[in-house]
Amino acid sequence: MQDSPANELVIEGRVVRAAETRYSPAGIPISRFALNHSSNCLEAGMQREIRLRIGVVASGKELQVKVAGLAPDDRVRVKGFLARAGYRSADNRLVLHAQMIELLNDEAR
User: Fold this and answer.
1) Dihedral sign, CA of 74, 76, 78, 83?
2) How far apart are CA 105 and CA 94, in angstroms?
């Protein structure tokens, strides 16, 4: 059996707006929301400011419990894998398909 190439991302950020949920033809809930991330990373010996927005897709009943409680500006950690935004689309934008969502305590707020 051949090992699959790695495709795993863990990112922290703030929820941009409440999730929108729809249901697949099989009745599976699928929620989408966006996450703003900002950090500083070391690149070639220099500090680099990182700011990005990434779309998040959360499928299944287990994740819906977490997503339903999210509000704009909540700080979360999301773990999952990257895939194209549209399954059959020629669009090459990437979204994070969540496998774990953790609400982080934010004492600064």
Assistant:
1) positive
2) 28
Question: What confidence tens digit (pLDDT) does each residue in 20-73 have?
Answer: 999 999 999 999 999 999 999 999 999 999 999 999 999 999 999 999 989 999
Those residues with Cβ within 8 angstroms of residue 84's Cβ, 6 or more apart along the chain or in another chain = 91, 92, 93, 94, 95
CA–CA gap between residue 54 and residue 102 (Å, rounded): 16
Give the pTM. 0.87
For 14-29, how does the pLDDT look when each residue is reduced to its tens digit (9 = 90+)?
999 989 999 999 999 9
Report yes or no: 79 and 8 within 8 Å, Cβ to Cβ: yes
33 vs 31: CA distance, rounded Å: 7
